[in-house]
Design a protein that fits this description.
Number of helices of chain A: 9
Largest interface: A-B, 40 and 41 residues
Radius of gyration of chain B: 17 Å
Radius of gyration of chain A: 18 Å
Distance between the termini of chain B: 24 Å
Number of domains of chain B: 1
Order of helices and strands of chain A: HHHHHHHHH
Structural class of chain A: mainly alpha
Helix content of chain A: 55-70%
Helix content of chain B: 55-70%
Largest sheet of chain B: 2 strands, antiparallel
Number of strands of chain B: 2
Oligomer: heterodimer
Largest sheet of chain A: none
Amino acid sequence: MEYLLIIVSAIFVNNIVLAQFLGVCPFLGVSSKLSTATGMSGAVCFVITLATVVTYLINNYLLVPFGLGFLQTIAFILVIAALVQIVEIVLKKISPSLYQALGIFLPLITTNCAVLGVAITVVSKEFSFGGAPHLMNLGEAVVYAVATSLGYGLAMVLFAGLREQLAMNDVPKSFKGLPIAFITVGIMALAFLGFSGIV
Amino acid sequence: MSKFGLIAKGILKENPTFVLVLGMCPTLATTTSAMNGLEMGLATMFVLILSNIVISLIAPVVPDKVHIPVYIVVIATFVTVLQLLMQAFVPEVYETLGLFIPLIVVNCIVLGRAEAFANKNSVGDSALDGIGIGIGFTLSLTVIGIVREILGSGSVFGWKFIAGDGILAFVMAPGAFIVLGYLMVLFNKLARR
């Protein structure tokens, strides 16, 4: 039941792009075509989950016990950058087809603030999923990371669909490109606000 | 380019929010009021100026292959300095801006300026570039904050001039996207003239 609450809340209620404003740059950058949007969502899902597990372990078993909490930001970004490199190298060897599909998106992910954002949220924010507020344990953190990245994928795929339609419309000159995209996301966020009562 | 031109271009011609469209996450998330927008802008400006200065100093000796990780470590160091300073002197501001202070590390404006300007220009010019882009970013965030605060709570910088609640949606997520969209339209329109 608790995991279900985490999943629903992370995908719909606190959607990472539409409610928390994380990872907006790549969200706008690669959402003009449905296929690239799907590829990027896959890569982000993979990296967010992996990065959350690794940074969670590093934070709780290395930084906190040795009183190095102030190094959190530097340590996390280095871990994420290294992780993205490793994933790239490993994928290239093990599954060239998947590497082909995700290839160009992987290096971009280091600077996607969704990854660092989720990693920091998981170790610092207290959540109360139907119980008393507490910091997440590893299991909850993994479920939260997976659900959050699914929410990212959902928002991205929905928006890519809208944008493909938008490209065929006659938009006033000043609205062309990003302005109309922002207004569209705003209306989408308004729709997602409707979920806010359910958790 | 003149010293003044270096600062001025960050405000209009290369405005990081409305023209370059970089650093969207803090722009959208922290502009719930004019004050929050201003504070976020100043925090980013602090990191931007210092990282620009240091990166322009070390750029000639950093091997090309590892320049991105080196720049990120420099930026992350200044973000940590900023975090500690804010926790010590303005803890309530640190509380409000929350997650978005450590996230300055991945703000594309900071790394973008390092790559596009600081690594091939002199220390003085890089500092001025940081000041210019920083002012441009701060101004944009403050303007978005003012618009959202007027529509959402009927006040400016906490000074309430419309009684009642205002349109709540403008303080919440959807309002951020919509206000930014329309301000971009306005900016495009004015810039084209």
